[in-house]
Design brief:
Blueprint (H helix, E strand, L loop, with lengths): L1 H16 L12 H4 L3 H23 L7 E2 L5 E2 L16 E3 L6 H10 L4 E3 L2 H10 L4
Parallel strand pairs: 3-4
Antiparallel strand pairs: 1-2
Helix pairs in contact: 1-3, 4-5
Length: 133
């Protein structure tokens, strides 16, 4: 709800520029309906973000925290039944740092990702770990 915050702040700026005098109270716009609409906007923003995150964990609990070793072994949690090759046309993995090369290779080999966004150093580390034909 940054829009609410922005509107409230702009209304207050305009009110202060109109030189209302000390102790004047704004009784128009969002300020007529709420004592601190800018804070209300901030609270609504963070509550919405919280609900978004909670919804993700409720809807996809088995898809969270799946980790794979370089030899396709699942680490920590099993692969959900509804995920994997064929169910999603494009699954993009985003990872960086050469230390993650083995895990990235494992994710590709297991079918969890079929596209990768990474940096040059990580890409080189992945290529260095793959056998040369």
């Amino acid at each position: 709800m940054p829009l609410i915050e922005w509107i409230a702040d702009e209304q207050m700026r305009a009110f202060q520029k109109s030189s209302p005098g000390p102790g004047a109270i704004m009784k128009t716009g969002l300020w007529a309906r709420c004592r601190h609409p800018n804070y209300l906007g901030e609270i609504l923003f963070w509550m919405g973000l919280f609900l978004f995150v909670i919804g993700t964990f409720i809807t996809y609990p088995k898809n969270c925290n799946n980790f794979f070793s370089a030899n396709n072994k699942t680490v920590v949690y099993p692969v959900p039944i509804n995920s994997g090759p064929g169910n999603t046309p494009l699954t993009i993995g985003v990872a960086a740092t050469p230390e993650k090369a083995a895990g990235i290779i494992g994710a590709v080999r297991s079918g969890m990702i079929n596209a990768l966004v990474t940096d040059v150093n990580t890409a080189q580390a992945i290529l260095d770990r793959l056998p040369v034909n």
